Amino acid sequence: MAKARTLYDKIWDDHVVDRQDDGTCLLYIDRHLVHEVTSPQAFEGLRAAGRRVRQPQKTLAVVDHNVPTSDRSHGIEDPEAATQVAALAQNAQEFGVEYYNELDTRQGIVHVVGPEQGFTLPGMTIVCGDSHTSTHGAFGSLAHGIGTSEVEHVLATQTLIQKKAKNMRVTVDGQLPPGVTAKDIILAIIGEIGTAGGTGHVIEYAGEAIRSLSMEGRMTICNMSIEGGARAGMVAPDEKTYAYLKDRPKAPKGDAWDAAVRYWDSLRTDEGAFFDTEIRLDAANLPPIVTWGTSPEDVISVAGVVPNPDDIQDENKRLSKWRALEYMGLTPGTKITDIELDRVFIGSCTNGRIEDLRAVAQVVQGKKVHERVNAMIVPGSGIVKMQAEAEGLDKIFKEAGFDWREPGCSMCLAMNADRLAPGERCASTSNRNFEGRQGFKGRTHLVSPAMAAAAAIAGRFVDIRTFG
Ligand SMILES: CC(C)[C@H](C(=O)O)[C@@H](O)C(=O)O
Ligand code: SF4
């Protein structure tokens, strides 16, 4: 009998072109997403070597990090951003790669755009010069970030040099309580395993709670796999995956669709397959989570208090958590619900999709953003924006006092004009709370969309389970 294999093993095996004795492999790459930040040198390298893009139709380029989220119909004012955007437009044209510019409705954050267009499909190897490429694993693909020199390698050859990672399974049993979301699951997992817990592994998420999630929720989980140190995250495809993808512009059609689904149905981890590491969590025990520090592992229940680093044995860790508290302007023992906010950011490739915006609308409908708070909502893509407007969500947001913006990465990493002022405190639906991530000396607390929405109204963190 054939050896029992994991989902990761199967996709890996189906893409190995060559294997050296030391385990180094050449992997075939099915899809390559390209954005303006990590591609200029890669295209420059091709140009210098006189090479073409090997398979332009398997490559898709979009601008997201630098674009302003204000009206851009009259061009991009910031000269640096304008130069980077223009460079991608020029490279895409010169190398025959499909490109969504800042005025295209299909434009958005690269990890929102891929799935939305059906460019992301189960069983594929997907890369992008961006760490959150792990998002696409929600479709049962092997998707991970690569560096700029690898971007050049993939552009030139449609292959990547890789060594196989270990298998890890995170099983989330049970059912999520009301008010607790995919974001809380992944923050809880990272809190449990730490930011290095997944190092050297590809994580497969399994269990009843994961199965019950929408594709949007699964993307939120896979998105943050990288914050847990893993190379990639994945969820086996199922009927929800197919329903999401069917009739998407780039998804296969007719007989090709049927044949694809037959293959995708085989992409399940076999009974008895080996995992190097296994973790289990019970969804029923999870609270809404807020991060208190400068690492995504610094998690605490909204009903809790800021922890005391003195309780940590390891000296280095203890000191680093004290530094985090100092940076965050917090003292141990402070109730999370006593933390006041200046800003709220709803968006990013973690939580900038339509389901996230619906969750926000549900919380803020008929209410007003707290007078101290400046709150913005940045849809993950033009398609998300259009859908939200068709559902009237933008009206709900604007009436509540939210700023409704154009799509892009925005204040997830503050590469454009959207940023925190020094000392400002923000509830954010994004994935990183590093020092300076949302602006110099800015203070970021990671939360779910519903929790960010409630915080915008209350001006402080509130427990979404009792808010209303
Ligand atoms: C700019 C890009 C290289 C970076 C990444 O790789 O993740 C960004 O998207 C981020 O989220 O920090
Ligand atoms: S939204 Fe944030 S995390 Fe996602 S790709 Fe953009 S900068 Fe990176």
Short overview:
With 468 residues, the chain is of the alpha/beta class. It has two domains: 1-287, Aconitase, domain 3 (2-Layer Sandwich), CATH 3.30.499.10; 289-458, Aconitase, domain 3 (2-Layer Sandwich), CATH 3.30.499.10. Helix content is 32%, strand content 17%.
Account of the 3D structure:
This protein has 468 residues and is α/β, with parallel strands linked by helices. The protein has two domains: 1-287, Aconitase, domain 3, CATH 3.30.499.10; 289-458, 2-Layer Sandwich (Aconitase, domain 3). It contains 16 helices and 19 strands. The chain has a five-stranded parallel β-sheet, sandwiched between helices. The chain has a five-stranded parallel β-sheet with strand order 17-16-15-18-19. A four-stranded parallel β-sheet has the order 11-10-9-12. Strand 9, helix 6 and strand 10 form a beta-alpha-beta unit. Helix 2 (40-49) crosses helix 5 (148-157). It is globular and about 55 Å long. The N and C termini lie far apart (57 Å). The model has no long low-confidence stretch (mean pLDDT 98). Bound molecules: 3-isopropylmalic acid and iron/sulfur cluster. Residues 37-38, 65, 130-132, 145, 413 line the site of 3-isopropylmalic acid. It catalyses: (2R,3S)-3-isopropylmalate = (2S)-2-isopropylmalate. This is 3-isopropylmalate dehydratase large subunit. Residues 9-459 form the Aconitase/3-isopropylmalate dehydratase large subunit alpha/beta/alpha domain. [4Fe-4S] cluster binds at residues 349, 409, 412. It is an enzyme of class 4 (lyase).
